[in-house]
Each structure stands twice: as structure tokens, then as C-alpha cells.
Design brief:
By secondary structure, this protein is α/β, with parallel strands linked by helices. The protein has one domain: Spore Coat Polysaccharide Biosynthesis Protein SpsA, Chain A (Alpha-Beta Complex), CATH 3.90.550. The chain is 33% helix and 18% strand. The chain is built from ten helices and eleven strands. Strands 1, 2, 3, 4, 5, 6, 7, 8, 9, 10 and 11 form an eleven-stranded mixed sheet that branches. Strand 1, helix 1 and strand 2 form a beta-alpha-beta unit. Helix 7 runs parallel beside helix 8 and helix 9 packs antiparallel against helix 10. The mean pLDDT is 94.
Amino acid sequence: MSNKACVIITTINAPTPAVLKYVADPSVDVIIVADRKTPEASYAGLGCEFLSVARQKELAPAFDALLPFNHYSRKNMGYLWAAHKGYECIIETDDDNIPYEDWTEKSVSPELAPATSHFLVGGPKAVNLYRLFTEKHIWPRGLPLSRVLDQDSHHHAQPVAANGFFDDVSIIQGLADGDPDVDAIFRLTAKESLSPVMFAKTGAYYKLGATQYCPGNTQNTVWRRRADFPLLYVPSYVSFRFCDILKMYIAQAFVRSAGRSMVFQGATVFQDRNPHDYFKDYLQECEMYVHVDRLIALLDEGLATGGFASGPDGLKLFYARLVTEGIVKDTRELPLLAAWLKALD
């Protein structure tokens, strides 16, 4: 550990241009989480912390025994490693997100970034913050479909003072240029998807208000408070295209319950997206759109009845409710989450 901040990536590929650029950044450490398909020899001598399948088992054998292979949730092992090593800031990304030159400044140390502006977002329960950075008809993966046609995002963002803006910020969600985290409906139907999406570089930070939600993801995400590291957990028993969206909706409500907040900023990475079958993506996203409105209602219910219990108990109770509601499909999620929290502790 040579820095206070680390970047965590899980991959089945040899080092990509994005991975190499993160490794070259002296201000962060890089943790690579392997899966069974990862070519381990290609990471020898790279200058990163490489968590092989064998090392993951040594790190948390009970959790490892329950955690699926060939799944994005293997990233949980990287979070465990970082938490055990004492990192104060965990940054999530993928092996196809290439950081811009100002990525560190705007993401890791936003308080010091020059020429920035700051806003508080109100308005509907679910807001489309992508529209604050582009005139294109675009929305983040996981936005309730009833909100896709909203045109008034700008009316709900009010400027606020920069002084103290980041004092309560636990999570910073960055956008991605190129092929951002949108859903398969957009990619299959919108003409805007035929060319790279480039978001406006406004230097703006948008803090979600007391009752607002906007889908987050694990594409370009900064976690600034160790107290919130349990919320890094990626579930295994929902679809691949839903797991990180579910995680981030839960995180928004739980940090709000603890008196902290989540902020969105513009694109600080360029995604050179790995190949996808958009129709298969669509089939996996159907589950997300069936459940997202109910998920938000359950989170609001928890906040309205006194908030969520701190520590492991609150997360366990909420996931148990998600299983009861059928949002999480399999009861195996509950012992897996319990093992994660025990390993984290």
C-alpha cells in the first residue's frame, strides 16, 4: 500500500489500455481481481496487486466458497482486500474505461479541482442526471422507464455554495464518454447510439437531494468513507445487468440514512466498450425494469420509518426483504451477504 486510494478492476482479459493507464498513475494503487478465465501470467510484474483465484481463497475462504465464479461479483474480493489493507478511498471501474488526464484531480480530490460549480438536485423521485451533461435523448441504465421522456432535469438543479459542498459526500459517480452506461433499449432503438456520446465538460457536481435517486453503477465510482464500505457489496443472485444498479440504489438510500450524500459529475473516462450482444443485454435488463419502481418504494419506506440500522444488521434486513419481494431471486444471497460482512469485519 503506497497510496490512500486504490482502483479495483475485475477482468477476464490481459492488461488493457485502461488498466495500463491506471497502473501508470502514481496517485493510486491498482487491484486486479481475477476470475477463472483471467490470463494470470499476463499480469506478472505489472506493478499492481493481482488477486489470483488462489489468493482470493486465502483472503476469505468462507466467503470464497459461496461466491460464484464467472461473475462480476468476484469484484467483492477486491473490496475486501482494500478494506483489510486500510485504504481510505476505493475507486471502482472496468478494464475498458480509460481515464482522462484530469481523472485523478476531479475524482479523487474534487475539493481541489479548479473551475467547478456545485448544484443540489430536487424534482421527481427518480431523476435523469445524464441530461444535465448533454442535449441528446439519453438516460442511465436503471432509470425507471416512466421517467425516460422527462425533459426538465435542468429545472431541478439549484446552484449552491462550494464551501463545504463535499463535507458529507460519501460517493462520487462519474459518467463515461464514448459508450456510457446506458441500457440496451437505448442501444437498440436510439439513433444517438450509432456514434460515440461525448458529455459536456462543465466542471459541475450535482448532489442528489433528500428524496431523489439516479441510477449509479460501478463504471467510474469513488467511495470516500470507510463507514460505507459494506455497501460496496455486489449481489450475485440477480441478473448481471442489474447487480451493480441494485447495489447503487441501496447505497444511495443507506448513505442518506446516515446523513451522507452522493454526487454525480461529468465524464472523466472514455469507455472503449468490450463487445456486447445488445439483445442479450436487453433480456437481462428486463428483470431490472420490472423491479426498479418497487425497489425505490422499499428504500423510501425504510427511510420514512426511521432509516436503516447501522452496521451489518441494516443491510441483512433489507436484503431479506428483497428476497421476500422476489427482487433478489435466490435465498443463497443471504448467507453470501452474511459471509461478506463477516469477512469485511
